[in-house]
Prior knowledge:
The protein is α/β, with parallel strands linked by helices. The chain has helices at residues 17-35, 45-55, 68-77, 92-100, 117-122, 145-158, 181-185, 213-227, 232-243, 247-273, 298-308, 334-351, and strands at residues 3-4, 62-65, 84-88, 105-111, 114-115, 128-131, 162-165, 190-195, 207-210, 278-279, 287-291, 310-311, 313-314, 324-328.
Amino acid sequence: MTISLARGIPSPDCLPVEELADCAREALRRDGQTILSYGSTLGYEPLREWIGERHGVPPERVVVTNGSLQAFHFVLASLGPGAVVVERPTYDRPRKILFAEGREVTEIAIDDDGLDVDALEANGSAALLYTIPTFQNPSGVTLSEERRRRLAALVRERELPVLEDDPYGLVRFEGVPLPSLLELEGGEHVRYSSSFSKTVAPGLRVGYLIVSTALASGLQGLAASTYITPGLVAQATLHEFLRRGLFESNVRRVCDLLRERRDTMLEALEHDLAGRARWSRPEGGYFLWLELPEDLDASELLTRAQKSGVTFVPGTDFGGEPNTLRLAFSYVSPDEITEGIGRLAKLVASAAAPV
Ligand SMILES: Cc1ncc(COP(=O)(O)O)c(C=O)c1O
């Protein structure tokens, strides 16, 4: 059986199926006539209130979308002309969307402390900075607090519009949570997107944006012409889940399940690949980033890996170097992770000299 270290989705045991089934029934019973009809374009009102309260902003600034990728599209549609600055590597879907739209894209490298803020400072003006500061997809790295503060100051000084994409922030296994750019900058230039995909369930398709009140009401027309009304049944089901106080305990449960998988992957890498590759050590999220010796091409390795029954995503899909790749520890079981890394390591050992 093929072991997928490619899929950035939660393992089935992360999903609170029974609880959501019960919440869906109760949401329909309680508010069925509202949520089964067309309704508020910017999202189910009680959910907008819950999200606003959580982030300390009025609900008028919250736009609940069908997943946070939708939020990216909405922000993009609201931009003026100019380049979009992204991290290198960065999440492949926004990258593809930007190139497909013919946007000028400026890539700025990341290192173990996240985005290179000096390089950003040296860069000229831009229409937007798209950044994933916490447990980044694909690298798993987190922007350090010092860089967050410098970035927030730079954004203010340059009046640089930012989209802070933060679906993984709460999926923290250890260490101290860092302030978001939204918190540090206050939300004048920073638009913030997040999602319940990683903390509850991606199939709900509930993401959200926090923007200025003016931009939120400006997005109303676009949201209406995209889907008339977002998926209110899912939003009300999720709201019932939150109202019952199930969110925090579910996030803890998900973190426990994923911590074990992250630990298993790090142990397997240390055991099987020490001296032959380098990798990031994320404190949360779904992914880590593997750097092979420079003469090894991850896309070629993938062709051989597929024959050996293990998959991953080559780093070039994210704008990374040919010798890099993304490993997801979120989906398969710990035993499969150990087996998958073992299969991968054999292929690397047969192809590479030690680094
Ligand atoms: C960084 C990042 N942003 C956004 C998304 C989209 O998530 P969703 O549309 O499910 O909220 C993902 C999904 O993997 C992601 O990794």
